[in-house]
Amino acid sequence: MINVGELKEIVDNKWLLDHLKDENVRVIEVDYDPNTAFNIWHIPGSVLIRWREDLRHKVLRDFLEPEEFERLMESKGVNNNTTIILYGDYNNWFAVYAFWLFKAYGHDDVRILNGGRTKWAKDDLPIENGDKETKYKEGKYKINKVDWGSHRVFFWELLQKVTKNEIGKTTILVDVRSPKEFSGEIRAPPEYADEQTQVGGHIPGAISFPWSQAVNPDTGEFKSKEELERLFENAGIKKDKEVITYCRIGERASHTWFVLKYLLNYPSVRVYDGSWAEWGNIVGAPIKKGTEP
């Protein structure tokens, strides 16, 4: 497994147990569906952020405005200098997606709990049952700068790269969905059966690298740095080019982005968070089916 002691952006269960009662540490569970996760059990003292209801824009397919993010943080007792520990359901997908958003909104000290709910449960560590959140004194939070440029790729930018044949030359495009999604056999994973796109397939030139290759399937923990380096190198995903990750809505893409940027120190990695939910619904967007890039 990854050596968490060498990295600022990730903690293990032992670290969290030692710091659960630290006043400046806030543990946040980020769930796509709290009814199957936080509302059943959660880490003691943690608070809940619901991905769809709390972090998404109320009207647009986008994220909440900076002012709304500030109010959300304050309601959870978070200040600008708070150390935030994120974990959640769906193999930490939405926790890492939230990490990506926290970084874009300029929060300095945010970290991922390695293994998330899966590892915490396997280690039989303390839990709180039910949906009651711990209440904290209201925080004071101010976003000073929003940095989408180094985190996010928009449709128009990626379309230019595809049409100008930059994919595979100056830019590596990584599709982290399942092989069946990549080939076009299915248009969404089983857990999102009601969220289909108009067509299946992948963006031309994309390399298929399912996100799950980076974790231990039994514990949800990240694999060792050496094994991760070997996996990405063998897939042709190299450090000397810009890397763009995508999936269906951005959650799995953020997971692989985190691995590349923070565990393997790739210098230029961004997420196309519009992902297949956008690309697969755009009239005339270039699409390829099958297993080849």
Oligomer kind: single chain
Low-confidence stretches: none
Helix content: 25-40%
Number of helical stretches of at least 4 residues: 10
Question: Can you name the CATH architecture of the largest domain?
Answer: 3-Layer(aba) Sandwich
Rg computed from alpha carbons, rounded to a whole number of angstroms: 19 Å
Largest β sheet strand count, sense and barrel closure: 5 strands, parallel
Find the CATH superfamily of the largest domain: Rhodanese-like domain
Mean pLDDT: 96
GO molecular function: thiosulfate-cyanide sulfurtransferase activity
Organism: Caldisphaera lagunensis (strain DSM 15908 / JCM 11604 / ANMR 0165 / IC-154)
Protein name: Sulfurtransferase
Keywords: Repeat, Transferase
